[in-house]
Design a protein that fits this description.
The chain is α/β, with parallel strands linked by helices. The chain contains nine helices and nine strands.
Length: about 260
């Protein structure tokens, strides 16, 4: 059965933990299926600013607490700011986009480990990740039309690019909710596994990523970001004399494991 797990803890936060060089970022608002409130968006931005500056991080995994990724935004706080234009714009352009853009700017590889519900804000956060793994019972959607408002422009562009226009339009215009198999077929997901293996697979992939050359990963992300923006890559070959470059090639020729 595709059961939804709701924990009893009530503190809403974004938690950062480390397993050697892998950073685990947990969305934690379990009584609301990890829905994002304003303070969580701000914490998420701070966490990824910290990770971008970290020399320890070689891979980041984003997960939700207690068997669900993220149910969207925390609607309970919406009446406090959504009905006034300036406050609404501040929320989307500063709080939400501040966090999403911090993930997008992070040069460390970012994996999403998706279990259970992944709605609205959860889809946006997952769209910022480089690799997305999900359980077979995961569900994806952005049914905010039922709440009477559209997706903010930059968030809609992000989601449409990651999901593809057809799926994004179905989510936003028809409030469609899709299963993991559909999202895998659309190319949004990298892998679908049994629900109880999601975190195990995420740990295994994160370990593989962390064992690879960290400089190469950062340069690949910078290159892909520039190309996506239609820009050139002016310093593409500056790594030529780097220690990591030499170690990788020399280790291969010596038939030994590289030490990055």
């Amino acid at each position: 059965m595709c059961a939804e797990t709701v924990a009893l803890m009530e503190t809403a936060s974004v938690q950062l933990e480390w397993t050697e060089s892998v950073a685990w970022v947990t969305l934690h608002n379990p009584t609301r299926l990890n829905a994002m409130n304003r303070s969580m968006w701000r914490e998420l931005q701070q966490v990824f600013v910290q990770l971008q500056q970290s020399h320890q991080a070689r891979c980041v995994v984003i997960q939700g607490h207690g068997g669900n990724f993220c149910a969207g935004g925390d609607i309970a706080e919406y009446p406090g700011f959504r009905f006034e234009r300036a406050a609404l714009e501040q929320f989307h352009e500063v709080d939400v986009w501040g966090a999403l853009s911090a993930i997008l700017r992070c040069d460390v590889p970012v994996l999403a480990a998706v279990q259970g519900v992944c709605m609205g804000a959860g889809v946006e956060i997952a769209s910022c990740c480089d690799v997305r793994l999900a359980g077979v019972c995961a569900r994806f959607g952005a049914p905010i039309a039922r709440l009477g408002f559209p997706m903010a422009p930059r968030e809609a562009a992000l989601v449409s690019q990651a999901l593809g226009a057809t799926t994004a339009r179905a989510m936003l215009l028809a409030a469609e909710v899709f299963g993991a198999d559909h999202m895998l077929a659309q190319g949004f997901l990298t892998q679908v596994v049994p629900d109880d293996l999601v975190l195990e697979q995420a740990r295994a992939m994160a370990a593989r990523v962390a064992a690879l050359a960290p400089q190469a990963a950062r340069l690949n992300k910078q290159t892909l970001r520039l190309l996506q923006q239609g820009q050139g890559v002016p310093h593409a070959y500056d790594y030529a004399d780097s220690a990591e470059h030499r170690e990788g090639v020399e280790a291969f020729l010596a038939k030994r494991k590289p030490q990055f």
